[in-house]
Design goal:
Blueprint (H helix, E strand, L loop, with lengths): L7 H14 L9 E4 L3 H10 L11 H19 L8 E9 L2 E9 L5 E11 L2 E3 L19 H17 L6 E10 L4 E9 L5 E8 L5 H4 L13 H13 L3 E8 L6 E10 L3 E10 L3 E10 L8 E9 L2 E11 L7 E12 L3 E16 L2 E16 L2 E18 L9 E11 L9 E15 L2 E14 L41 E14 L2 E13 L7 E12 L2 E10 L8 E7 L3
Parallel strand pairs: 1-3, 4-7, 8-10
Antiparallel strand pairs: 2-3, 4-5, 6-7, 9-10, 11-12, 12-13, 13-14, 14-15, 15-16, 16-17, 17-18, 18-19, 19-20, 20-21, 21-22, 22-23, 23-24, 24-25, 25-26
Helix pairs in contact: 1-3, 2-3
């Protein structure tokens, strides 16, 4: 072990050497640390001079580095609540190379004894102005942590700004540490100052009238000023689809009433999209869409889309009218023509729908009345039927804003009905429940779960068209089977669809390299009649490739419950939720 030197000249020379060849060079001396957690060890290695020395040190430099280590250790551990560490440091030189070994006892952690947070108005103590104690993360009994202390201060200051106290200032910010018993008292006091309020909101550059624009404003004139409300205003305007750029400018120079100017650059009025498509269920095809973002100053919007593939043809149009007073409520009229050929049916339908879309508590609610005319051929029988179908649908999503989320879910419930007395072929009630859940096992592993259960109650099932019957099988149902090839059969063995549906899926996915992922899965379920039926299952493996439009999923699925059947390839592109 290299001995310590006390020469003042040598220490000065070592200081110059350290300054010339110290932190920031391309390699560091070997450093072994014992007695600390991995987090503290990494923090210490980032700050110790000995860990960043960039050359083989002289004996004088080694002595200088050893002298610095105890103070550097103490400074590095203080932010984590350790105020009395004991450090033993030594340097070894073998084969012409120097290494350092540190044995550190951090001592007892400093615990919070009390937390006192106060607010003043003109020097007089007042009640909590709506911040809440949960904003400050440190509580009595917690270990003192400087980073959490500073984050708590910033959280309270942000909360005060969102209550309109834009000029609030900290007059007391004290952490009193008692080293003798490893305890600390926290004291914070803010002078609130005057409260600011929102003034009038004005818009420039928008092609929409003020009545429509104000549906996006989440506050009223006179409400307490809030930065969060301004961020929400910006987000609502960008999410509306009308605008390309939004800049919200509060004018604080006007005093305590803060007017807000919103400068807007509209998006291109029309959007055109066309491309090739492929899905195992639909086959190769082409699709195109034209969107008119606004048709008039009232924000009405129009969409025309078409799809053509080997198994499906669609032409549809939508007309959307924003509802005043709510940024998330709309009226919509939709008309579509669909011709579809599945493994068990052929159908051509025309559907006219009138809907109201709006938030309902924590859900998205869609109330719809549809007029359906459909010509179906099922098991060789062709029928034309007409229905008037009122329905209510509720949905909730978390994480769906990401194409490939690490976690999230979708819940959806739909109830629809028809009455023979109201121009329908027969009376019916349908309930359809669907859930998807994604959760991460680690940064490289995900589990995807999916389930759907549906039921139909009707006295005359035989007159129902294909779109009102339930089938199973396909890319998004039970892999390993053709699209809608599973369900109850007639006396000739032809699939005719069922009154009930139950399907589920469990999938494990792991990142293997870069954008590539591997998956294994099990799908199960079937469509059933009143008498019940057998569950079918498909299992297999798959490859995934992450793209800007979501995952490309290529699966090889085996129909487990169908002996002697060949495996089936499934290809799907798009978001997880």
């Amino acid at each position: 072990m290299i001995s310590r030197l006390s020469s003042r000249r040598r220490v000065l020379a070592a200081t110059l050497l350290l300054a010339l060849g110290g932190p920031g060079a391309g390699w560091s001396l070997p450093l072994e640390i014992r007695g600390l957690s991995r987090e503290l060890e990494e923090q210490l290695k980032a700050t110790l001079s000995a860990a960043h020395y960039a050359d083989q040190p002289t004996p004088e430099t080694v002595e200088y580095l050893l002298d610095k280590i105890p103070d550097e250790v103490a400074r590095a551990l203080e932010p984590y609540g350790y105020y009395g560490p004991t450090t033993h440091a030594e340097a070894r030189r073998r084969g012409g190379k120097t290494s350092f070994r540190l044995k550190i006892d951090p001592g007892p952690p400093t615990l919070i004894d009390s937390v006192r947070i106060e607010y003043l108005a003109d020097g007089t103590a007042v009640a909590d102005p709506g911040v809440g104690r949960d904003r400050f993360p440190l509580k009595p009994g917690d270990q003192l942590n400087h980073a959490r202390y500073e984050a708590g201060k910033r959280a309270i200051e942000d909360a005060l700004a969102n209550q309109g106290y834009l000029d609030a200032r900290t007059v007391v910010h004290r952490v009193a540490v008692r080293r003798r018993d490893s305890r600390a008292d926290v004291e914070l006091t803010w002078e609130l100052g005057p409260k600011s309020h929102f003034g009038p909101v004005s818009f420039t550059g928008s092609p929409l009238n003020d009545a429509i624009m104000r549906r996006y404003v989440p506050f009223e004139t006179g409400d307490p000023f809030s930065r969060d409300k301004l961020l929400l205003l910006t987000q609502r305007l960008l999410d509306s689809g009308y605008f390309d750029r939004v800049e919200v400018k509060p004018d604080r120079d006007q005093g305590l009433e803060v007017p807000v100017l919103v400068e807007i650059v509209p998006a291109a009025r029309s959007r055109y999209r066309a491309g090739l498509s492929y899905g195992t269920d639909s086959g190769p095809g082409v699709e195109a869409e034209w969107l008119r973002r606004w048709l008039n100053a009232r924000g009405h919007r129009g969409t025309l889309r078409t799809e053509l593939s080997t198994k499906r043809a669609l032409v549809g149009t939508e007309y959307t009218i924003p509802q005043r007073g709510s940024s998330e409520s709309y009226y919509q009229a939709a008309l579509s023509w669909l011709d579809e050929d599945t493994d068990s049916s052929e159908s051509t339908s025309v559907r006219l729908s009138l809907s109201r879309l709006r938030p309902w508590r924590d859900w998205r609610r869609v109330d719809t009345v549809s007029l359906l005319s459909e010509r179906s051929t099922i098991a060789g029988n062709t029928e034309t039927s007409r229905f008037v179908l009122p329905s209510v649908s509720l949905s909730r999503k978390r994480g769906a804003e990401k194409l490939i989320p690490e976690s999230g879910y979708v819940l959806r419930a739909t109830v629809r009905a028809a009455a023979e007395a109201l121009a329908s072929e027969t009376s019916l009630v349908q309930l359809d429940l669907e859930a998807k859940k994604i959760f991460a096992l680690s940064s490289a592993q995900r589990v995807l779960l999916r389930a759907r259960a549906a039921a139909t109650w009707t006295e005359d099932f035989d007159v129902l068209p294909a779109s009102l019957r339930y089938f199973a099988g396909g890319d998004r149902s039970i892999r390993g089977y053709d699209f809608e090839s599973l369900g109850p059969k007639d006396e000739n063995g032809e699939v005719i669809g069922g009154r009930f549906l139950l399907v589920g899926s469990a999938e494990y996915e792991r990142t293997v390299r870069g954008n590539w992922r591997a998956a294994t899965f099990l799908d199960f379920g079937n469509a059933f009649s009143r008498g019940g039926g057998e569950l079918e299952a498909g299992a297999g493996v798959g490859l995934r490739y992450a793209t800007p439009i979501g995952l490309i999923r290529l699966d090889l699925a085996f129909p487990v419950t169908e002996s002697g059947a060949n495996p089936r390839v499934h290809l799907v592109v798009g978001p997880d939720l």
